[in-house]
Design goal:
Length: about 200
């Protein structure tokens, strides 16, 4: 769909309304608090570990040898959790995106999204998209790992109360660049940069 186009008729269709109306049961005996980790199958484990450590700054926590996991398995962390990503070297081809669409990694500030964009470019990582998409209103840079898994570094995802409504589509403020996303924020999103020199000239 073209930039800035929001399909209000589609968003209000019976099929979409029916999906939005699905609620969790009231008496679940547990409450999930976060997505813990993802495990990706990769073609070349060394190449992928280099990408996730050298380009994205993850640290290796543990490694299983072939005797424990065919193709080896590498656990990588980016916060206090033992691992947020694990890689298994069993891939015979690049990702076909049949099950997993993308993984997104949050950073603490908008400045870091711009720094990430510049860092990715310096490391010859092709960028698929930068700016703000639609629902959620986060500002992001999207790119691929060496196995063609889609990745995202983002800031500013809408926060909402459990029982509250999400931001209306008229406020999504889609923009095709980080600079445009900064210049045209949706209501309530403060896109003030700490370091103005990070903007593209």
């Amino acid at each position: 769909m073209a930039r800035g186009v929001v399909d209000l008729a589609g968003l209000n269709s019976p099929e979409v309304k029916a999906l939005r109306a699905i609620e969790p049961p009231a008496a679940l005996p547990f409450s999930i608090t976060k997505l813990g980790h993802a495990v990706l199958i990769v073609q070349d484990i060394e190449r992928s570990v280099r990408f996730y450590t050298q380009v994205l700054g993850f640290k290796v926590s543990d490694v299983y040898p072939d005797s424990m996991m065919n193709g080896r398995m590498v656990f990588l962390r980016f916060n206090a959790d033992h691992h947020g990503i694990a890689l298994v070297g069993q891939g015979s081809a690049k990702s076909q995106h049949r099950e997993l669409h993308h993984l997104a990694f949050e950073v603490a500030t908008l400045d870091e999204v711009l720094r990430a964009r510049d860092h990715l470019k310096r490391n010859d990582v092709a960028i698929d998209f930068e700016g703000r998409r639609r629902a959620g209103a986060q500002v992001a840079v999207e790119f691929r790992d060496p196995d063609d898994h889609r990745l995202e570094i983002y800031w500013g995802l809408d926060q909402m109360p459990w029982e509250g409504p999400s931001r209306p589509p008229e406020e999504w403020a889609e923009e095709p660049s980080l600079e445009a996303a900064i210049d045209h924020p949706p209501p309530g999103q403060d896109t003030t940069l700490t370091d103005l020199s990070l903007r593209k000239r």
